[in-house]
Specification:
The protein is of the alpha/beta class. It is built from 15 helices and 16 strands. The radius of gyration is 23 Å and the shape is globular.
Length: about 450
Amino acid sequence: MAAATVQQRICAQTPSGFVVRSIAAEAAEFWHSPGDTLLASPGVPAITRRMESENSIGGGRPPMKPRLLCVVYGGGHFRACAPVLAELHDRGWHVDLLALTTAYRDAVAADFEPWRVRDLLAAGDEEMLALGRRLASAYPSNPQIDVEETAAYLAFGYADLVAAHGEASAAAIYAERGRQAFAPRTLAARIITRASPDVILTTNAPRAEKATIDEAQARGIPAIVLNDLIASPSNFWLHNPDYADRILVLNDAVRDRLIASGHSPAKVVVTGNPAFASMIALRAKRGLNSGTRPTAVLFASQVLVKGELRLAQDTQNALHALARRRPEWRVHVRLHPSESNQTDWIAAPLVHLTGLGLEQELELCDVLVTHGSTVAIEAALAGIPVVQQLGSQLAAETRFDLLGIAVASTTPDDLERAIQIALGKPPLGGVAMPHDPTTRVADEISRVFDAV
């Protein structure tokens, strides 16, 4: 009986019925009869392989069904793809999911059993992982992301940075740009090799997701991008006419923007974003609400880049001053998931929203304030006025105000004026999308597969 020398976790049937595989080895796969045990390396317990009957034809190989690999970075991107994965599973597809950072937590909570980055570590990666752990130690702890997962992600990204630029240049680039400099093609290559997909789906994240699209195209595997936002110029890779085989977009305005960049009209398809589908219903629900209550101002906070601490502090101070000066306004704060341990600046009269989902928060909201959060698009879809605080890199990359989604606040001292203007306007019409995005996205993936 053949035995692997590294840990393998293979073929588990999840509670939701999705078949996923997670294999921590860079060795050949071993196909055994049910109950066979793969020997592990020293210190690693043996793992017993479980083969479900529906996946045990052809000498143990999976059945010939369409195979999709989905790679998502972050909870928002997972929420865009999750309904589509469920729809495709119901249509008979085999689905693999690589969930990075907070997407892993959300995927597990939704009864998926996703791959992790650490599952793709191989024998011989020990030195690379040790460096990843050293890099991870410089980051603040986040209870929502396991430190070993962070270390594995940094290990892959930094190793590719060294391979591309050499040790000295890689160190200088990382010191200046941090994770923003990563293009983890090795990570992408390993998950694609493991999952052996017919079609690949990602959203528009610039590192692991883009690397997956690049690797897929290099291998001739159809690559689909579900662009969850507005295809702003800062997402420059989306505007490369050769990027991806299909780009699925929010609405006609986004489609026109990408076609103007040189993409073929047939390649850019309006589907809407499944993560935002509930906002259409919320818009109608909010229209039925009545009664008197304080005006609710919701600040969707985010972590700004290095060098923007003063802007973040000035915005926080402006919110405190606003709450004191306008007692008829209740200023609520929604922290970004990565800010869960940074609540020290929130104090009376500010209101820290905890334990509420985004839809509940928006149902209570009369106007949204943000630097550049995607929550702005969801709010606009729900008919909620939006104010964008300018001055940050995030704001420069999104400029919701120029897209008809938001009223601009030029400085934090300008927030009160901008909020008053936004509250006095009818809902801005800069955002719309189809009402059935999940079906549209799943249909388009099926069409791409059928054309192969």
